């Protein structure tokens, strides 16, 4: 039986789970997959961790793994450096590499995949980088791409989905819920990467590369996080038959143009993505020839993510050729926010006086934004009352200009809340 | 670039779509996967079909494909014979085989997979046999199995799901809806394989083999179709917060015992599987270490299914080793219906007289079945009125005995409707 020697660099939550579960499932893998996976080396800067892994060769310098006789290097330290150099040198030495490092892949994925296609170079696998335990990378690349992918819509970040679900189910403000998420370990102490949509953007870039042969120019993609979602918005969404989710969307437009964006959006409460709650992740793929697909599951956690890492290691034991996803499709281009159009949810804070609605409506009409419905609730005793509107389809540029104009009216307390309605 | 010559046997809906889409995606596959797939031979008994495929070598005898120089034989004729012999001989000749033939795999899958692991034999792939375009086979075998699969629950048959969804959305009896489904092409003229659960059973057997290393003894598995689902049941389900689906379930119990069953079941309306409508299929997998996963998408149709067939062909071009799923796990055993226990929905047709409910309740109590809720609606003018009950968890054997006893009461019009409530 083929034996694969694995070296694991980085013994954080995922690294520890990978070691534990590789040892636990070695027999199952031998029986069911015909490959014997041996944990030949583990590595962490914290030398004291060696005591937790008796009987496995332990080193504290990553290069002692890269320069050893392992067949597969598993990089689980995260961040761009030194992970980039470790992976690059490993591939050059002909070692296969498995990584879960989405930040690195979003920035240097194309470069590393190209390297992995080189003669005598190792192969690269990264199933765990998006949606933890859910096999979306394998599914999109090895399967759905043959049906002609039209769009990929993801709920890719567990922290933000936990916060939004929690606000919807239990009420509570964004701030309170974020604090709770921190206490429960669902949010980091510095949660900016998650809350502000950057983590979702990194993952979206990877999916874009797999689905359309195009990684995203990160600085150019429209990204809006969930800091400004008010519990009021969540209430109104519910009343209107919607749910608010942080979506990461990439879509092929006519003329080989690509639309990519990350932002909170209303989605119909009846849509399967609306049911994706808590720290679950999901990816919804629409195809030309095979209709729509949904994949969902736990997006984080050591054990779930380790299943994806192990799947990659095993696949390297089974396969022989580097898949050529590295041949980037140079013919597709990203479109800017200027070409977006949506139906929108707008929530104005307006002085409770006659004529205010007429003023708002006039501005919207001036910019070609047409109103589908208006709701105005009595909220006794406040100077400002909420007015909620759903619009018909409108160009984003015009809508934003209209909002600026409306926000400058003396009867309005800015900023007016704008949330896109995702037509799925 | 590696070139793979493919021979396609059977030009029905799927076969035609495979040929069309292989030609259409050849360039995409070369660029993105590094393999050149050539349609080298097509075969159908109906010689007249050759005119639809100008320029591709056409034969009318399947053995002219098996004995040719193709690398991959794609079997799309369905049924056990002669498909079994065609696949067996192709594998023995060292040709890889791709099939969508669930009936054959349910009966002879283990045998064929073992053969495919033999020296100098070809490899076998069958992604399209379950859930059409949805990559559940690849996902379960190459990914989720490393997280320790506990149970697999599928909506595996599009015809029955279409009928049940349609009854729920539009009212209408089972018979009317079946006729409509036939007219629209969602049901075959002889729909028994679908309606009676046999098709679901075939697919469940394949998933059981992948998830637990155990194909099912088909004759021993409890299978109940949807013929007896009344529109009343669907109404009541809705009122009670449930949806009725035809589920195919396989679950690992303590002591390496396996529970497998196909039957209509109530599932909570809030569960993601409840959202799987029309001819969509879905598979819900629960794992020890990575939580729950849902996969859904179009389960039928030529284009959707052809994506799975093409994915298999491409994977054969990329991989080199036969995966060893053929080593059947001899340590797991199927449990019988005797060990089932559920919460149940019961609908009695009872004479509208005082004391009837007391009689029913007494029988249930005698058999240890405890009642969670009772609903009795006034339905003026009929001799018999429906009484609906939800029970607490009860042993199936005892429940069925209680039902027999109740059905023998003079105040009851048999048979009493029994539907299991799936705790998902």
What key attributes describe this structure?
homodimer, 6-stranded parallel β-sheet, elongated, 424 residues, 12-stranded mixed β-sheet, alpha/beta
Explain this structure:
Chain A is an alpha/beta fold. Chain A is 35% helix and 27% strand. Chain A contains 13 helices and 18 strands. Chain A has helices at residues 13-33, 63-66, 83-92, 102-116, 136-142, 158-170, 174-183, 192-195, 198-212, 231-239, 302-318, 356-366, 396-407; strands at 2-9, 35-43, 58-59, 72-75, 96-99, 124-125, 149-155, 222-223, 242-253, 257-268, 280-287, 291-298, 333-335, 341-351, 371-376, 384-391, 394-395, 417-421. In chain A, strands 7, 8, 9, 10, 11, 12, 13, 14, 15, 16, 17 and 18 form a twelve-stranded mixed β-sheet that branches. In chain A, strand 1 (2-9), helix 1 (13-33) and strand 2 form a beta-alpha-beta unit. The longest helix of chain A is centred in the first third of the chain and has 21 residues, at 13-33. Mean pLDDT of chain A is 90; it is low at 320-327. At the A-B interface, helix 1, helix 5, strand 12 and helix 11 of A face helix 1, helix 5, strand 12 and helix 11 of B. Strand 12 of chain A pairs antiparallel with strand 12 of chain B.
Give the helices and strands, then pairings.
Two copies of one chain form a homodimer.
Chain A: E1 2-9, H1 13-33, E2 35-43, E3 58-59, H2 63-66, E4 72-75, H3 83-92, E5 96-99, H4 102-116, E6 124-125, H5 136-142, E7 149-155, H6 158-170, H7 174-183, H8 192-195, H9 198-212, E8 222-223, H10 231-239, E9 242-253, E10 257-268, E11 280-287, E12 291-298, H11 302-318, E13 333-335, E14 341-351, H12 356-366, E15 371-376, E16 384-391, E17 394-395, H13 396-407, E18 417-421
Parallel strand pairs in A: 1-2, 1-4, 2-3, 4-5, 5-6, 8-10, 10-13, 10-18
Antiparallel strand pairs in A: 7-9, 7-11, 9-10, 11-12, 14-16, 14-17, 14-18, 15-16
